[in-house]
Design a protein that fits this description.
- The chain has helices at 13-23, 47-67, 85-124, 154-161, 189-198, 214-267, 288-299, 314-317, 334-343, 354-368, 372-386, 391-414, 435-463, 467-472, 477-495, 503-518, 520-527, 538-562, 564-587, 593-628; strands spanning 2-9, 27-28, 42-43, 142-150, 166-174, 177-185, 202-204, 271-272, 276-283, 303-309, 324-325, 638-639.
- The protein is α+β, with helices and mostly antiparallel strands.
- The protein folds into 4 domains: 2-70 and 251-324, no CATH class; 114-230, Alpha-Beta Plaits; 328-433 and 568-636, no CATH class; 466-562, no CATH class.
- Residues 71-77, 125-133 and 207-212 have low confidence and may be disordered.
Length: 646
């Protein structure tokens, strides 16, 4: 990474900000982190304009949602037509004036239709067998009354009930009076009573002829519902017309507002004088020329640009500034970056452990889950997930695919095909026939992985010039020498059975590193003259060192033994197959045995793939994170996030 600082005239600041966003390679930083004197400079004032664009953006989201437009329809490559905030606001006022009445009318009609359908569904309950309407029933949410009113007052009833869902069913007219059946929702009873008062409606008992008119009511309501549906359809067509009319404008506004808001957020990092702005950030070395050329072009060389390698900045060397980190791996390893970052973001200028994680995890997964058939199913599942549009799902799919391939490879080595070991002979060994050999291999694998972790820790420490950490860390040089010495002595005892280790050999291999650890204080003083040799006194110093030694021995022993779980889960995988096939042998001789045998095989394999596949993944990650990463991983890094659109 390189740190870039730019001094730009205020007349060019908008063009420069737009260019930075367009290039998408500058990770903005607070310049005061490396240049404390800049604290005296003013920050760019963006509060008012930020609030204005935020309000416009909220209004735009409401409009696009109402019109059924999605922001994701905006293409990154779409050319932006520059417009100001005032023009956007005026245009949105015009759009809202045209669209909002239609939307309000549509929503009102929808509510009315919903209520009418509720009434219709209630009325339908009376008609399947030509049942009678009982206006006094307690088991409905409808309020139904019958009676008569002056024919001239019918318009009053219609007017009063028009705002609410209602049915007005006239069925007889005599001497200027009309007999009516009125239906409303119970919640609108007050409106109904008012209509009855206004029209001098006389409530009567249900006449005989009204007890079988539910079918007529349904016909009337069907017409009303059909009419409402048609009206809603007509309004929808008008809304669609408005949608396509304003489509280009709205999409451009979305893009403009995103760019403006991003520009405002960027300016928060800027420092300013009376006529200039100071901009600072991080950029990858291989992209710095693109940034410099872009800034020089838009300012017509009216700018001052300074670039400094991160390693040459004093604040970085002292660890006061956290330089952003960008993974740089081939495409094959990209999914494994997800696993690395899940544990933590590595700090700048240390070894990226992704490649080591990828290799060791796949080997361990395949060793614990080795079966050609199961690996094939995982691979197919991985291909399906990898083809999904969501980036996280696609990464997980790629990981599942790689794990499936590893399982297939180890399945061939074990000679296991859906648990059946008679199809082809193994290219290596059968786990259940070589248990002790498998355990020994798991332990040696653990020794190798832990050793790689110690070596990476040493390299990281010396690259960051932290020699004290490189020497005296638990996974430092002295801790590593103690571990390797102890491992060598144990191996020598097992290879040369019955041999008695000579004290001189033990002292030479383990004793010398232990003695060096006890002299940690005086040695540290050589690197840091200002440090005290025994900060808490001699007794406390000796006690702390003894405790540290015990932690080293116990910790490394536990780390190494932990890898035995690779052999254990490999054997468990084979053992589960034995259990499944045993159940098949039990049921196949019984009635329907073939069917039940096939069913047990399918369910058994599904259970093994799902349950053990999940467990093996968790155990593999546990070995990576706690036995491997714990030796060297220095988290707390900051992800490289350049300012860019999309």
């Amino acid at each position: 990474m390189e740190q870039i600082s730019m001094i730009i005239f205020d007349t060019d600041i908008d063009a420069v900000t737009d260019e930075i966003i367009k290039l998408g390679i500058l990770h903005l930083m607070d310049i005061t982190e490396i240049a404390p004197w800049t604290e005296d400079l003013e920050s760019a004032k963006v509060d008012q304009i930020q609030q204005k664009y935020s309000e416009l953006s909220k209004r735009l989201k409401v409009i696009t949602r109402r019109l059924g437009l999605e922001e994701k329809l905006v293409k990154v490559t779409q050319k932006i037509k520059t417009v100001g905030a005032d023009e956007i606001e005026k245009t949105m006022d015009r759009i809202e004036a045209d669209v909002n009445p239609l939307i309000l009318e549509r929503d009102t009609k929808h509510e009315e239709l919903k209520s009418q359908q509720k009434i219709f569904n209630q009325v339908k309950l009376f008609t399947p067998l030509d049942l009678k309407i009982d206006t006094r029933t307690r088991y409905t949410f409808l309020e139904m009354v019958t009676g008569h009113a002056e024919e001239k007052n019918l318009s009053i009833i219609k007017k009063e009930l028009e705002p609410i869902p209602s049915v007005i069913m006239p069925f007889r007219t005599t001497e200027g009076k009309v007999m009516l059946l009125l239906i409303v929702l119970k919640k609108d009873r007050v409106v109904l009573e008012k209509a009855m008062r206004e029209s001098s409606f006389e409530k009567l008992e249900v006449p005989e002829e009204t007890t079988r008119i539910a079918g007529d009511v349904q016909k009337q309501m069907k017409k009303k519902i059909t009419k409402l549906q048609k009206e809603i359809g007509d309004i929808e067509l008008k809304v669609q017309d408005e949608k396509y009319r304003f489509y280009p404008l709205l999409l451009n506004f979305i893009k403009v507002l995103k760019a403006k808001q991003m520009s405002i957020r960027a300016k928060i990092y800027f420092k300013k004088t009376e006529r200039t702005y100071l901009i600072s950030g991080w950029v990858p070395k291989n992209k710095r020329r693109n940034l410099i050329k872009g800034i020089q072009r838009v300012t017509e060389n009216r700018c001052y640009i300074k670039e400094v390698e991160a390693e040459k900045i004093e604040a970085v060397r002292k660890g006061k500034v956290n330089v952003p980190v960008q993974f740089s791996n081939p495409s094959f390893l990209k999914p494994f970056e997800f696993l690395t970052s899940t544990f933590g973001m590595p700090k700048y200028n240390v070894i990226d452990p992704t490649i080591f994680l990828a290799i060791t995890f796949l080997i361990m997964f395949g060793a614990m889950f080795g079966d050609v058939g199961h690996g094939l199913i995982l691979g197919l599942l991985g291909i399906f997930l990898a083809r999904q549009k969501k980036p996280v799902t696609a990464k997980i799919g790629a990981l599942v695919l790689y794990c499936g391939v590893s399982s297939i490879i180890f399945g061939v080595l074990y000679g296991s095909y859906f648990g059946m070991e008679e199809i082809l002979p193994p290219l290596w060994m059968r786990p259940m026939h070589n248990i002790m050999h498998l355990i020994a291999l798991a332990i040696f694998w653990g020794i190798a992985v832990i050793s790689i972790g110690i070596i990476i820790n040493l390299i990281n420490a010396f690259r960051s010039r932290d020699f004290v950490k490189g020497l005296f860390d638990k996974a430092g040089l002295i801790g590593g020498l103690i571990y390797w010495g102890a491992v060598g002595l144990v191996i020598k005892m097992f290879v040369a059975k019955g041999i008695v280790l000579k004290p001189a050999l033990v002292i030479g291999v383990i004793g010398i590193p232990v003695i060096l650890l006890f002299f940690k204080g005086p040695i540290i003083k050589l690197f840091k003259p200002g440090e005290r040799v025994f900060p808490g006194g001699v007794f406390s110093y000796v006690l702390d060192t003894v405790v540290e030694l015990v932690e080293i021995f116990i910790g490394y022993l536990a780390n190494t033994i932990s890898f035995v779980r690779i052999a254990a889960f490999c054997l468990a995988h084979a053992g589960l197959f034995i259990a499944v096939f045993s159940l098949v042998d039990i049921v196949k001789q019984r009635p329907g045995g073939i069917f039940y045998s096939i069913l047990i095989l399918i369910l058994g394999n599904a259970l093994i793939i799902t349950l053990e596949g999940l467990i093996v993944t968790i155990q593999g990650l546990r070995l990576e994170y706690y036995e491997f990463f714990s030796k060297f991983f220095m988290g707390g890094g900051k992800e490289y996030r350049p300012l860019k659109m999309g």
